Amino acid sequence: MKSLPEIIEGCLQQNQRDQKYLYERYYGYCLKVVFRYIFRYDKATDVVNDGFVKIFGKMDHFHYESSVNLEMILMGWMRKIMINTSIDWLRKSNFLPEIGVINDGIWLEDKSQSADNSLLYKELILEIKKLPPGYRAVFNMYVIDGFTHQEIADRLQIAVGTSKSNLSKARGLLQKFIKVGDKEINVCYM
Hints:
- With about 190 residues, the protein is mainly alpha-helical.
- The protein is built from eight helices and two strands, in the order ααααααααββ.
- The protein has a two-stranded antiparallel ribbon with strand order 1-2.
- It is elongated.
- The termini are far apart.
């Protein structure tokens, strides 16, 4: 079995076996990232595939100092590409609402999460899915992916005030969506 630095080097050399290994190893992770933005399974898989084409095409832009935390660095770099590819798709589609269901196959078991956390994540994503596309994109980018309002405005080509307003409205809607029994839960974010 090759090490991750060897696989990355193989991808730089356009070795198809190494590209296939990287694709198969990180496909589920990338699909989860994309699925926060695009809920139609068929479109999300298309965006993931487009993202991997960009990853392999831009592999020479991926730099790292040492192999310490290499996987985390690689996943962060890939996440950014997948988010940008998702945003590009949403922009081209004019943020049209997606119709579809979340395929349970994307909820690959994550050994680092407890069963409760995994269930809460899935429930949160289902609630986020109910948000209008513009609110959902801003919410995902700000709360989950850590973008600033200026970065969101630049990427979505909207005003900073619109980003802030969409986030506030998304939070309000999520507070209405998330209930335990008859009690509402206050959803607090950064």
